[in-house]
Design a protein that fits this description.
This protein has two domains: 253 residues, Ribonuclease Z/Hydroxyacylglutathione hydrolase-like (Metallo-beta-lactamase, Chain A), CATH 3.60.15; 36 residues, no CATH class. It is 24% helix and 24% strand. It is globular, with a radius of gyration of 22 Å.
Length: 309
């Protein structure tokens, strides 16, 4: 089952010729989700081929480099005669500002738009086999991050063992896999646990938006397959990171290490590193034993299941 992440915008507050402001697109088996909508996001969506069939937009906070692409995106969706509704999730207390932003030109989208305020712990989306929850972050304004968490999957079905127990190939296999006991050919009752392994974990992707390193993010990212964390500065600007409520790459790596995350994407890269972000990656790799990388705009990665072989 597809879980694909496309980095549409990886810059900090100031865009560069190489990096657009913040936006991350996630496709989970056809559920298309957009995390933040920096200026120019719609063009990045065209450029990197994600399309515009986004059903949910998740805003981490209302600083311009995270939301100024929203009016243009809604306008383009309208020009394309969109009919499907769009849900926009935004921190508590910011609904009115987002509604005004969408209608800044005086025109409203012809398709339904729902603005949903969320706070830490709230389930923003309860989808088919997954949920997206808001998590507490620490920035200079009302802000949240988001954790996409899949439900556990069924355990592996041992077909060979089922046949040994006298279960004929057919519908009874499915019933056993669904947790229902069945009767074998000799009349013996076979329980699901005899042929079905333990539940297998789904995947977890965490997006922080702008934040200082926090215990809440560390807890939310526990065992994450991919942590996408603010890493605006290298260690030589740690004071600047603290004063502006951002994180250094090393601090992001500490969060990933304590959380036991598998991969760490370092984003919101300050324009001072636009041409060469290698110092950020080096700082992170000194702290985190997993895979740490600075994605470029347009980079696309697949998130495998934890038990993928």
């Amino acid at each position: 089952m597809t879980l694909r992440v496309t980095f549409l915008g990886t810059s900090g507050a100031i865009p560069t010729t190489e990096r657009n402001p913040s936006a991350v697109f996630v496709n989970r088996e056809g559920d298309e989700l957009l995390f933040d909508v920096g200026e120019g996001t719609q063009r990045q969506m065209m450029r990197f081929g994600t399309g515009f069939s986004v059903s949910h937009v998740f805003l981490s906070h209302l600083h311009g480099d995270h939301v100024l692409g929203l009016p243009g995106l809604c306008s383009t969706m309208d020009f394309n005669e969109r009919e499907a509704s769009l849900a926009i999730h935004t921190p508590q207390g910011t609904r009115t500002a987002i509604e005004r932003l969408i209608g800044v030109t005086g025109a409203r989208p012809s398709f339904p738009v729902r603005v949903n305020e969320v706070g830490p712990g709230d389930v923003a989306v309860d989808g088919d086999g997954f949920a997206v929850r808001a998590i507490e972050t620490d920035h200079r304004t009302r802000s949240v991050g988001y954790a996409l968490v899949e439900e556990d999957r069924k355990g592996r079905f041992d077909r060979e063992r089922a046949e040994e127990l006298g279960i004929p190939v057919g519908p009874q296999f499915s019933r056993l896999h669904d947790g229902e006991p069945v009767e074998s050919e000799d009349g013996t009752i076979v329980e699901p646990g005899e042929v079905v392994g333990p539940p297998r974990p789904g995947r977890k992707v965490v997006y922080t938006g702008d934040t200082r390193p926090t215990k809440a993010v560390t807890e939310a990212a526990s065992g994450a397959d991919l942590l996408i964390h603010d890493a605006t500065f290298a260690d030589d600007h740690a004071d600047r990171a603290e004063s502006t409520a951002h994180s250094t790459a090393a601090e992001a790596a500490e969060v990933a290490a304590h959380a036991g995350a598998k991969r760490l994407a370092l984003i919101h890269v300050s324009s001072r590193y636009a041409g060469d972000p290698s110092s950020l990656a080096r700082d992170a790799r000194d702290v985190f034993d997993g895979e740490a990388f600075v994605p470029d705009d347009g980079d696309e990665i697949e998130v495998p299941y934890p038990d993928a072989e």
